[in-house]
């Protein structure tokens, strides 16, 4: 049995998790509220908040797992892609901790981690705090429970990875054999959703707000053109622009147009983006003869994306793999599961490894076309 401590700090969530083999023992997330007032993640503030959060979060993850730090066999960390300052906090901590414990390090690619979250298993017995022990007093603890323990996909399967920074259709032939079939040529899907929300002044991150408001709106109220992009690639910058111009015109006639039609606007833009995403996924799965389709990343928390994927899979008698909400947005559990499979392969990291952002990347060879 191998015990892994995993750290995730690539963007604005500080997270630590403990896994015993593929079983999740704890997954603590401290989300940074400080960015809301700026309408987006401020890198400088993110790294400062990581610095404040990292030790209490790791401490809580170890306590919640009911282990001693001496039980840890390896320390895993997200190496990239992400914000340089944010990554450096997690990486420096992981390196020092591993060095102090005399244990090996495992580097994890954030995108691979999102996809591999489908392999996280839940513990067979209740965790200490589920047995009545007080939970550590963290502002944003992440409950475990639902969803995990579901049978993971088998290879090959397809995964739509959709987050604030990435949009890719991946074909997985093995845990680390991920072929990028298509990806966005400009904005990520989450970025487009967040920008639409920003235009409507709905706060940041806008994805969950649009999702919530869309429930009360008519998804066919307005149509926004989707671009013709070859193959399985995407483009979202045009959708965002057409949304902006549409509103600019309407606001000339009615300055309160957004306020009066907020739910319909949310439902319509959400439907536009989700339909565009899934049309290509469906095509890719048909073309590749794949019968298992997964979603991963922050946008996979979207209720329409989840229900539409399920509908499409039912139509074709395919199997849909929809992650529990707690594994959609950034978390260290997914880093831990990726690290577990690397541990089994004997893939350990050198203490001198630097982080990589999107642009400065020595690209990991297993994601063939990653890194736009
Ligand atoms: O994976 P993630 O936490 O961070 C990145 O790696 O980017 O994804 C964050 C993204 C944000 O764009 C956020 O608006 C979006 O996921 N998101 C959603 C929902 N929940 C989070 N988008 C649509 N509907 C949601 N329910
Ligand atoms: Zn992410």
Could you characterize the architecture of this molecule?
The chain is an alpha/beta fold and 372 residues long. It folds into 2 domains: 3-148 and 327-371, Nucleotidyltransferase, domain 5, CATH 3.30.420.40; 157-322, 2-Layer Sandwich (Nucleotidyltransferase, domain 5), CATH 3.30.420. 38% of the residues lie in helices and 17% in strands. It has 9 helices and 10 strands. The chain has helices at residues 43-65, 84-101, 110-116, 189-199, 207-214, 237-253, 257-288, 303-316, 332-344, and strands at residues 3-8, 13-20, 23-31, 74-80, 105-109, 157-162, 167-174, 177-183, 292-296, 319-321. The strands form 2 sheets. The protein has a 5-stranded mixed sheet, with helices on both faces. A 5-stranded mixed sheet has the order 8-7-6-9-10, with helices on both faces. A hairpin with a 2-residue loop joins strand 2 (13-20) and strand 3 (23-31). The longest helix is centred in the last third of the chain and has 32 residues, at 257-288. Mean pLDDT is 89; it is low at 134-149 and 359-372. Zinc ion (ZN) binds next to helix 3.
| Strand order, sheet with most strands | 3-2-1-4-5
Q: Give the proportion of residues in helices.
A: 25-40%
Query: What is the arithmetic mean of pLDDT?
Result: 89
Shape: globular
Q: What is the CATH superfamily of the largest domain?
A: ATPase, nucleotide binding domain
Q: Output the CATH topology of the largest domain.
A: Nucleotidyltransferase, domain 5
What binds here, in terms of ligands, is: 5'-O-[(R)-(carboxyoxy)(hydroxy)phosphoryl]adenosine, zinc ion
Could you give the distance between the termini?
38 Å
Order of helices and strands: EEEHEHEHEEEHHHHEHEH
Number of helices in the DSSP assignment: 9
Largest sheet: 5 strands, mixed
CATH architecture of the largest domain: 2-Layer Sandwich
CATH class placement of the largest domain: Alpha Beta
Alpha-beta content class:
alpha/beta
Number of strands: 10
Strand content: 15-25%
Q: How large, in whole angstroms, is the Cα Rg?
A: 20 Å
Number of domains: 2
List low-pLDDT spans.
Answer: 134-149, 359-372
